[in-house]
Amino acid sequence: MPVNGQYTTHKVSNPSHGETVAGVLLRPKNVPNPPADEGYAAFIFDPRSVGDRTGQLRRQENPKTKNEDTVAGLNYLESRGDIDKSKLFLVGVCQGGPESLDVASYDDRVIGAAFVTGYFRDRETDIYICAGCVSAEPGADISTMKMPTAEQGEALYQARLKRARKAKALYERIGEVIYQPLVDPNAADPDKGHLLDSQDL
């Protein structure tokens, strides 16, 4: 029977496309936190846009850079002398799920991949999230919220994409960051959320 806590933790950082990604490496002690308690080394890291890392942009949801950071993590593990390079396995949580599966599909160093509560984005889910099923109050009862019609949902979705493109263009032009909140009851309001501009949020 494994014993919890039979591992060591090491704060580490590794480069990823001009920035530094920070993480924690869990190494088993003499006996086999799953998975470290089971005898596996586990490298847990935050992608470039979150956590203790370098760079200006924060909380940017970008599957491409998350994939790049995952590959950088594999490079880091491969560079260590105490990791078996023939047994690299990916586990992704939430949006890390699809990224892990994607990286495993093209990086031959990965022998397997799994995900926990994977978030697989599609148009319907994006509209659902952007169009009223979000609340700034934790534990809000979604059944009591005013849900948009299909037309209102599409308008909210398109408005959010327009605000995001505008913010991205501004950043690329002059380096100014305008954050677009994922959870915002005003932006998700079925009647007027699609009328908001970036400066209104």
Automatic annotation (TrEMBL):
SUPFAM superfamilies: alpha/beta-Hydrolases. Belongs to the polyketide transferase af380 family. This is Dienelactone hydrolase domain-containing protein. Residues 56-118 form the Dienelactone hydrolase domain. One of its GO terms (molecular function) is hydrolase activity.
